[in-house]
Amino acid sequence: MIWPCEREVALARFTLSGQASGQTRIAAAAGYTLIELLVVLALIGLITALASPRLTRSLPGMSLRSAVLDLTADLRAARSQAIRSGVPAILVVDLQEGAWRIAGSQEATVRRVRRLPSGIDIGVRTALHEISPDGRMARLVFYPDGTALGGRILLRRNDATFEIAIDWLTGRVEWKRNGE
To answer: What is the pTM of this model?
Structure first.
């Protein structure tokens, strides 16, 4: 019979590998020290401090590109609406407010108004009779056969300019960054 105290001594004589030894071994808990954690946090802070100025400088350019993509998508949606409904569709641009909306030929079916982010200028080149007398509004017309009145839209912020072109024959809408 093994007494309880003899059993504890017998267990203490085995190492982690399970072999008997004359000395006891205490297994250390695996983990990170406080110093290691502080060094990692300091590195993360340093990388964030170095990267954030670059990120904030690129945000205005991203909002301009996002506006170009939104306007291009709405122009394509207007063309699709004209083909699907058999009625001309019009994208009305408010040049002073920097906003646009898609309307039917009688402007009875008005969809939501979308606005450009602040700091972005817009200009439209289209047929003279599609620009209001005060120069505030411009209309870009898409016909049921897929053609369009044609035109160009320029979006500019500081020194970056994007151009959206509408082909009059095919109604195709494409955009590019000026200088490319």
So the answer is: 0.64
